[in-house]
Specification:
Structural class: alpha+beta
Number of strands: 2
Strand order of the largest sheet: 1-2
Helix content: 25-40%
Number of helices: 2
Shape: globular
Protein backbone atom coordinates (compact mmCIF):
# COMPACT_ATOMS: atom_id res chain seq x y z
CA UNK A 1 0.00 0.00 0.00
CA UNK A 2 1.09 3.60 -0.42
CA UNK A 3 -1.03 4.84 2.50
CA UNK A 4 0.96 4.78 5.74
CA UNK A 5 -2.19 5.06 7.87
CA UNK A 6 -3.76 2.05 6.15
CA UNK A 7 -0.57 0.07 6.69
CA UNK A 8 -0.49 0.95 10.38
CA UNK A 9 -4.13 -0.05 10.78
CA UNK A 10 -3.39 -3.39 9.10
CA UNK A 11 -0.38 -3.99 11.35
CA UNK A 12 -2.46 -3.31 14.45
CA UNK A 13 -5.38 -5.43 13.28
CA UNK A 14 -3.23 -8.47 12.47
CA UNK A 15 -0.38 -8.23 14.99
CA UNK A 16 -1.65 -11.11 17.14
CA UNK A 17 -2.61 -13.33 14.21
CA UNK A 18 0.47 -12.94 12.02
CA UNK A 19 3.01 -14.69 14.29
CA UNK A 20 5.78 -13.03 12.27
CA UNK A 21 4.54 -14.45 8.97
CA UNK A 22 3.09 -11.20 7.65
CA UNK A 23 4.86 -8.04 6.65
CA UNK A 24 3.29 -4.78 5.60
CA UNK A 25 5.33 -2.62 3.26
CA UNK A 26 4.89 0.66 1.44
CA UNK A 27 5.21 -0.11 -2.28
CA UNK A 28 4.06 1.45 -5.53
CA UNK A 29 3.61 -1.85 -7.36
CA UNK A 30 5.59 -0.75 -10.41
CA UNK A 31 9.10 -1.05 -8.95
CA UNK A 32 9.49 -3.84 -6.41
CA UNK A 33 12.72 -4.41 -4.44
CA UNK A 34 12.68 -8.18 -4.95
CA UNK A 35 14.80 -10.44 -7.12
CA UNK A 36 13.47 -11.94 -10.34
CA UNK A 37 11.45 -15.08 -9.66
CA UNK A 38 11.29 -14.49 -5.90
CA UNK A 39 7.68 -15.59 -5.25
CA UNK A 40 5.64 -18.70 -5.98
CA UNK A 41 2.52 -16.57 -6.18
CA UNK A 42 1.66 -12.88 -6.37
CA UNK A 43 -1.89 -11.87 -5.45
CA UNK A 44 -3.28 -8.44 -6.34
CA UNK A 45 -6.81 -7.81 -5.10
CA UNK A 46 -8.49 -4.53 -6.08
CA UNK A 47 -5.14 -2.90 -6.81
CA UNK A 48 -4.92 -2.10 -10.51
CA UNK A 49 -7.55 0.63 -10.43
CA UNK A 50 -5.37 2.55 -7.96
CA UNK A 51 -2.14 2.41 -9.96
CA UNK A 52 -1.48 5.20 -12.51
CA UNK A 53 0.25 2.83 -14.98
CA UNK A 54 -1.24 -0.63 -14.36
CA UNK A 55 0.57 -2.22 -17.30
CA UNK A 56 3.90 -1.44 -15.59
CA UNK A 57 2.70 -3.04 -12.36
CA UNK A 58 1.66 -6.22 -14.16
CA UNK A 59 5.03 -6.38 -15.90
CA UNK A 60 6.77 -6.02 -12.52
CA UNK A 61 4.59 -8.64 -10.86
CA UNK A 62 5.38 -11.09 -13.66
CA UNK A 63 9.08 -10.40 -13.12
CA UNK A 64 8.98 -11.37 -9.43
CA UNK A 65 6.90 -14.55 -9.92
CA UNK A 66 8.92 -17.75 -10.33
CA UNK A 67 8.74 -19.49 -13.71
CA UNK A 68 5.62 -21.65 -13.54
CA UNK A 69 4.32 -19.57 -10.63
CA UNK A 70 0.92 -17.93 -10.38
CA UNK A 71 -0.14 -14.30 -10.73
CA UNK A 72 -3.67 -13.84 -9.37
CA UNK A 73 -5.40 -10.53 -10.16
CA UNK A 74 -8.90 -9.57 -9.11
Amino acid sequence: DVDDQALQAAREKHQDQSLGRLSFERQTGTTLPYADGRFDRVIAIHVLEHIPHPHLAIKEWIRVVKPGGTLSIL
